[in-house]
Amino acid sequence: MRIENPRLYDALCDLQVDYRPRQCLADWTSLGVGGTTDLLIVENPARLPELISLLRQEGIPWRLLGGGTNLLVAEGELPGVVLQLSSREAGVEFHAQCVRVAAAANLGRMMMECARQNLGGLEGLAGVPGTIGGALRMNAGAYGAQIGQFVRLVRVFRCTTNRIETLDGSQILFAYRQSSFAPDDILLAAELQLLERPYEEILASIKMCNERRRATQPVHEKTAGCIFKNPPDYSAGKLIDELRLKGHRVGGAVVSERHANFFVNRYAATADDFFRLIELVRERVRQAFGVVLEEEIIVWKHRL
Ligand SMILES: Cc1cc2nc3c(=O)[nH]c(=O)nc-3n(C[C@H](O)[C@H](O)[C@H](O)COP(=O)(O)OP(=O)(O)OC[C@H]3O[C@@H](n4cnc5c(N)ncnc54)[C@H](O)[C@@H]3O)c2cc1C
User: Fold this and answer.
1) How far does the centroid of ligand 1 lie from the alpha carbon of residue 70, in Å?
2) pLDDT tens figures, 44-66
3) I want to staple 139 with a disulfide (CB 3.0 to 4.6 A). Which of 17, 68, 148, 194 is the partner?
4) What residues line ligand 1, using a CB cutoff of 6 Å?
5) 5 CA distance to ligand 1 middle (Å)
6) How many angstroms is it from 225 CA to the middle of ligand 1?
């Protein structure tokens, strides 16, 4: 969607928004597919209440982009604009065993800063790309660690109240790849309570997780992580593998030979290639095992 009203450009500038017209979301997502829209980078989250009110008044729908590592975006001109929190001042602060971190901060970089303070617990998440905001929303997890289990506080802009609020960890529910935030909540910062652990020990665990990932996942290809959630008592990857679908290709989208639940953009794939491959795999698994796989990735289609 294009913002056509020139009066709005000045208003966005006053609200400390870095306005980037006609961005191709293939360039902003790890999967490397997706259409175009205007991108609004929010330099000062304190101005969000005014920004969201303005967009509401103008009838402009929006979606929120973190690091774009868990997204499959449809092709063509997208309805609505995309907001992203600026990572320019996304630093971390330490208070005893707690780390306060901006939602726009990079998860991996924060983990390394925590390690230098002898604070660990998140090592399993080593190698998960993206931001803190995206990780909290998705309750990112791997190798026995999930970010939700460390959350003490989250600062969030709530569209329902048009205010910035602070939620206690006990007010938030985290489950397997989901959280209880409202769909239009914009997470701004979090305080995580970590575990005291010697730097060398944390580093050794991180190294082990990275090696495991490199051995089992297509870490050098364009992906969005696991496509499907694991159904209860099953591994989605194993079900797909049992059907010998590794290497199966639709257009430029391929089921990774390394990990059957990772689909890779190998031959200049389009979003439609991925949609078709997802449906094909889901149907084959349903027919063979009677299990309906649910997407783990977030899909942005034309309907908001
Ligand atoms: C190679 C690879 C490996 C991966 N391995 C794992 C893994 O082991 N475990 C795992 O859980 N995931 C994994 N992922 C998926 C992905 O990295 C995580 O889900 C990550 O936490 C998403 O963060 P992001 O900032 O990129 O979010 P995005 O992809 O940008 O967004 C994901 C969702 O979060 C929302 N969101 C983003 N920021 C905010 C915010 N500030 N406030 C509110 N909502 C927000 C978006 O609107 C969207 O709905 C992997 C991905 C890749 C590419």
Assistant:
1) 4
2) 999 999 999 999 999 999 999 99
3) 148
4) 30, 64-71, 85, 103, 128-131, 133-135, 137-138, 140-142, 185-187, 219, 223-225, 298
5) 32
6) 9
- Per-residue model confidence (pLDDT) at position 304: 66
Number of independent structural domains in the chain: 3
Q: Verify that 140 and 157 share a domain, yes or no.
A: yes
CA of 177 to the centre of ligand 1 (A): 10
Per residue in 88-122, is it b (16+ CB within 10 Å) or e — as a string? eebebeeeebbbbbbbbbbbbebbebbbebbbbbb
Nearest alpha carbon, ligand 1 atom 45: 134
Q: Which of 35, 64, 85 is the last residue of a domain?
A: 85
Specify if 230 maps to a domain. Answer: yes
Over residues 237-271, the pLDDT tens digits come to: 999 999 999 999 999 999 999 999 999 999 999 99
Q: Which residues contact 134 (CB under 8 A, 6 or more apart)?
A: 66, 67, 69, 70, 107, 140
- 1, part of any domain: no
**CATH number of the domain enclosing 176:** 3.30.465.10
